[in-house]
């Protein structure tokens, strides 16, 4: 079963996460499909840029706790987005949680509509946003990162734009993105690729320097007693044992 829909319009390849019944959670299969679709877009000379979007009310709910992806595969997917020699634009009209923010932050440009909400909920289930910190921390305002990494609070698109997670927030996400996509269509393939490399160089260096250490940290945290209790509480829709 395919979980990623693909369509082309005037040089823009749209990849649509299509697992709405699981809130587009990042399973092993979904991560593999998105990675393959991005590889295909990168190799297609008719594709000028990629737009990443979703069906349903959730862009991505983070890792699928029942069938999580290998952390190395998630890091490889985020790095693929950052390193792709074509711009990747995120179109968000729904909710984004936990690991989904890593997917979002890896994109070069992003827009969120009024129905979008965001939260880094890892600390609430006994872990930390370890591997997704690679693309997130270079984007986020430092004070905001400290707040939302620690509290797990939900915030909206205007706040997401203020702190650097989103590029644009608007009542109509397609209207907001129209000049962006038009601008990308006007860029030469070489010009876009080389301009993107200037912007992403330090992020890619962080992936290559810290990726393995953060995967190891993530694996250790997910194997802990706190994580077992936190994930069980989440799946049972109850407070974890440590909640006051």
From TrEMBL:
Q: Which Gene3D superfamilies match?
A: 2-enoyl-CoA Hydratase, Chain A, domain 1, Lyase 2-enoyl-coa Hydratase, Chain A, domain 2
Q: Which residues form a coiled coil?
A: none
**What domain of life?**
Bacteria
An example of a GO molecular function for this protein is:
catalytic activity
| The family this protein is said to belong to | Belongs to the enoyl-CoA hydratase/isomerase family.
PANTHER family in the record? ENOYL-COA HYDRATASE, POLYKETIDE BIOSYNTHESIS ENOYL-COA HYDRATASE PKSH-RELATED
Q: What is this protein called?
A: Enoyl-CoA hydratase family protein
